[in-house]
Amino acid sequence: MKRIVSVFAAVLLIAGLHFPVAHAEEAPEISAKAAVVVSADTGEIVYSQNSGEKLPMASTTKIMSALLCIESGGLDEPFVVDSDAIHVEGSSMGLREGDIVTKYALCCGMLLPSGNDAANAAAVRIAGSSEKFAELMNARAQELGLTKTYFVTPSGLEGEGHGSSAYDMAILASAALRNRVFRDICSSESIKLEFGAPPYTRWLKNTNKLLSMYSGTYGVKTGFTDEAGRCLVSACQRDGKNLVCVTLNDRNDWNDHMAMYDYAFGKVHTIEPELPENITLALAGSSSDTIAVEAEAPPEPVTVLSEDNGSLTYNVISPPFVYAPVKKGDTLGELSVCCGGREIRRIPLCASEDADYVSAAQEEEKGLISKIISELRGFFS
Questions:
Q1: Which of 219, 287, 290, 371 is deepest in the core (most CB within 10 A)?
Q2: Dihedral (CA of 127, 129, 134, 139) sign
Q3: Active-site pick, 39, 51, 59, 234
Q4: Catalytically annotated residue among 33, 62, 103, 267
Q5: CA-CA distance, 291 to 288, in Å (whole number)?
Q6: pLDDT: is 232 or 311 the higher one?
Q7: Can you list the alpha helix ranges (DSSP code H) found in the chain?
Q8: Which long-range contacts (CB under 8 A, 24 or more apart) does 255-260 make?
Q9: pTM for the whole thing?
Q10: Cβ count within 10 A of residue 51
Q11: Catalytic residue list contains 59
Q12: Where in the chain is CATH 2.60.410.10?
């Protein structure tokens, strides 16, 4: 029996597989210059090592580039790549002059083989130049509250001032993973695409080996340059808990990420958001002044450091008035769920009931009838 177990363990070792331990009590010692583990939901820091220091982050830059490309829309519209944009050093998705691609294909080319050609081609297609695209990247970084981040290139090849912190990259990755298209792409070990002149079928392989090395991993992006060293942003889920891990300048990134996850998953909890009761919105054009709304679906659990449900706050987002007619189930607004001042969820709110349209004349007639009935009751009483 012992021999069978030994052989099985040897097979796993050779295969490079890692099965997560329940949790590690002691914080791991890692070789990264900067590192962080955060809740993918709240951004709370579970583990940190120089996480606020600005450093070059190489091709993890493409997290922002791919996110902006996805959000620009028209992902399946074919076009010819800009000839100058694809002439760039470093990693590539294999674009050539005259190739016909889609934005979706470029996003895959950025997130899987880390194509610098894909990042530049997307930048030119969206903003007209890499410089203009960098302005969009920095504007979005400001929206996300990334205080140590500055983008110069869409690919991550160094430019003066180009850099970020481990914590900023974790917050960026958490935001990007809320986009379903982004998450589906970066969690794929390989993707089948068609592009070229004319387009033909080919496969792109993901450089993120952690997807197959550590159970529960579903993203995100690798990076390397001589200046930045090995950089890795990953995301992992276990027992409903969601974490994002970042290492910058780390020669042992695969093992360090696995060790940090083994430690961090034992430090976090999941809580169910307790939504406010009796939410109503102002209603116009109906016999009632308000209409009741409710969440379209139960909210997903939130990964937090503390099990205290009071750490979550809520804010209803809706127009000043909802106008009748309204059918039960119509989406009328959203409920913003926040933790520590940071929005972590947007939950659609739908009508709990019907509300028919009532014109001003109908309302006046209804009021007159009510008045007559009231006076008759007084007379006969």
A1: 219
A2: negative
A3: 59
A4: 62
A5: 7
A6: 232
A7: 2-15, 62-71, 103-111, 116-127, 130-143, 166-177, 180-186, 210-213, 253-264, 360-380
A8: 256/28, 256/30, 256/31, 256/32, 256/35, 257/210, 257/214, 257/232, 258/18, 258/20, 258/210, 258/213, 258/214, 259/24, 259/28, 259/30, 260/28, 260/30, 260/35, 260/37, 260/47
A9: 0.85
A10: 22
A11: yes
A12: 269-381
Cα–Cα distance, 319 to 284 (Å, whole number): 11
Q: List the 100-101 sheet strands across, edge first.
A: 79-80, 100-101, 190-196, 199-205
Q: What's the whole-number mean pLDDT along residues 186-196? A: 97
Choices 2.130.10.10, 2.60.410.10, 3.30.460.40, 1.10.10.10: CATH for 269-381: 2.60.410.10
Give yes or no: 328 in active site: no
Domain with CATH 3.40.710.10 in the chain: 21-267
CB burial class (10 A; 0-12, 13-18, 19+) of residue 368? exposed
Chain centroid to Cα 202, Å, comes to 27
Q: For residues 261 and 269, is the Cβ–Cβ distance under 8 A?
A: no
Q: How many Å separate Cα 27 from the centre of its chain?
A: 27
The one catalytic residue in 39, 114, 130, 164 is 114
62 is catalytic: yes
From residue 88, alpha-carbon distances to 2, 29, 31 in Å are: 55, 37, 31
Architecture of the 21-267 domain: 3-Layer(aba) Sandwich (3.40)
**Tell me: the pLDDT tens digits for 108-148?**
999 999 999 999 999 999 999 999 999 999 999 999 999 99
